[in-house]
Model the fold of this input.
Amino acid sequence: MSGDEEMVEAEEEAEPVEAILDENGLVKIFDERKTEIYNKGYYGYFEKDVLNLTPLEALLLLERGKIKVTDTSKNAVDFKQLVNFYLKKDRKIWTKYIVYRDLRSRGYTVGLGYEGDMDFRVYERGAVPNEEAAKYLIYVIEEGIPLALIDLEKIISIGASSRKKTALAVVDRQGEPTYYFVSEVEL
Done:
């Protein structure tokens, strides 16, 4: 086995980092490996000496076995329980998660979009958030759920005013996302 193979194997066997789900739905990491979690994929944001994960980041890291989550009473929280917890707060969380996981698996760094208007800001592969601008804005919809033209116009307008490529991520009934770039056309 080469040195690179041993290092990859050691990473896969690493003990998951402990995280705590607070009453507000924030997953917090106090463990000293929090910086490692952040640096490996720009997950979360620091508040004082704590790494806070968004719901989508927490779900992805839990599914990948990078973290293990407990509630404030020290009860283990598995992936399904965490999804159900977040569904109470955001009915679109599962659809957003499918798109988030897909984008991350393609090597993109993904940040939250503009509250209520866009779901994600997507950075070019290898880009460092807060040092470089996002290249894409993504709005997530489910197949079969209508999107009003006024909402589509708003999405296109936001993308144009921020000078980013804008895409609709349509998640089909099989849970597969398809991306459609949208732009304004004047006749």
Notes: Confidence is low (pLDDT under 50) at residues 6-11. The chain has two domains: 3-87, 93-182. The chain is about 35% helix and 25% strand. The CA atoms of residues 100 and 161 lie 24 Å apart.
